Q: What sequence folds into this?
């Protein structure tokens, strides 16, 4: 049995991974400052399923170096998910974004290094480290933008171009995690994640757009689409993401020091409104009113991950197609409307 430390373990990805780990009998510590509205709801769910004492909860903040260093002392595996997650928030208030994402990740790495246990560190990075990819030619079709010359999507060799404070802070963490493997020999893995979606995602307008659109549609909240709505993303179901985490741990001798793009790939793309709206209206059974807003900083017209490296090195590929995964999320939101009050 390994000792797992999940930072941000009460969040969307974190709570799903904690659930998976507890189901297979692992020793889990959740480290979370409980700042997100969904965090108490996710903790209640975990306790209701697994019991009050099934995991250790440390209410702490990654900006507190002493706290995370103390908590990391016993860990064999650290999955670092704690983050400031919204580009728009980073633009309006860049200092806490830096302190949480860049300095917080540094604190986690130092906690791992100083523990003396050489724990595995898996870091949830983002496709935003590639910036707007303005050097990549895109073509406008009737309902979507697409790459002109990247049939498999953007590879890990795509030049980094941190755009927005969020891109800078997450990118700094990304590079620190990678370099701690090279310099200190920590077995670290960087996961540059596309649009992750699934149950237990309390999405808001600024972050988690798939869940936000579903939640707004089901609960009757106003929807604003920024840009032309033809922006294309590859969607990755959270269960598929967690499969990649598990495979990286299983194959850490090969995965250590590596960077992987994790997304749905070319087979699981959708335009964020011109194509997502008809899918959502089909599930809802009615037309959705929408207002429009300007493009937001760092918003790529297209991002599709080239996921071939994860397939080759980890033996991983997504199992959930977009329509199946979105319907599952829709059904979960519809069955749990009370959870979204006061969000």
A:
């Amino acid at each position: 049995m390994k000792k797992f430390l999940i930072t941000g373990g009460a969040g969307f990805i974190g709570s799903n991974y904690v659930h998976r780990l507890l189901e297979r009998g692992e020793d889990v510590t959740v480290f979370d400052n409980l700042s997100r509205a969904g965090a108490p709801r996710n903790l209640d769910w975990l306790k209701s399923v697994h019991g009050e004492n099934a995991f250790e909860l440390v209410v702490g903040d990654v900006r507190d170096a002493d706290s995370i260093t103390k908590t990391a002392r016993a860990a064999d595996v650290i999955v670092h998910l704690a983050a400031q997650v919204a580009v728009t928030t980073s633009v309006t208030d860049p200092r806490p974004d830096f302190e949480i994402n860049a300095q917080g990740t540094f604190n986690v790495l130092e906690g791992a290094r100083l523990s003396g246990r050489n724990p595995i560190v898996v870091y949830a990075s983002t496709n935003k480290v590639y910036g707007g990819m303005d050097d990549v030619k895109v073509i406008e079709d009737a309902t979507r933008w697409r790459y002109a010359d990247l049939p498999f999507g953007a590879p890990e060799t795509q030049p980094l171009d941190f755009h927005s404070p969020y891109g800078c802070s997450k990118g700094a963490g990304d590079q620190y995690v990678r370099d701690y493997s090279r310099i200190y020999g920590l077995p670290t893995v960087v996961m540059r994640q596309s649009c992750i979606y699934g149950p237990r995602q309390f999405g808001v307008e600024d972050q988690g757009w798939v869940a936000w659109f579903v939640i707004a549609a089901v609960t009757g909240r106003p929807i604003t689409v920024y840009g032309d709505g033809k922006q294309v993303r590859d969607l990755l179901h959270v269960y598929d993401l967690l499969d990649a985490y598990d495979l990286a741990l299983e194959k850490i001798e090969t995965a250590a020091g590596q960077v992987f793009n994790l997304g749905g790939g070319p087979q699981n793309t959708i335009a964020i409104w011109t194509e997502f709206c008809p899918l959502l209206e089909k599930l809802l059974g009615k037309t959705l009113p929408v207002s429009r807003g300007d493009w937001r900083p760092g918003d790529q017209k297209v991002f599709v991950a080239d996921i071939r490296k994860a397939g080759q090195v980890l033996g991983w590929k997504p199992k959930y197609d977009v329509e199946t995964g979105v319907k599952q999320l829709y059904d979960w939101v519809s069955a749990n409307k009370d959870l979204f009050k006061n969000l």
Q: What stands out?
A: The radius of gyration is 19 Å. The chain has a mean pLDDT of 95. The domain at 3-340 is CATH 3.40.50.720 (Rossmann fold).
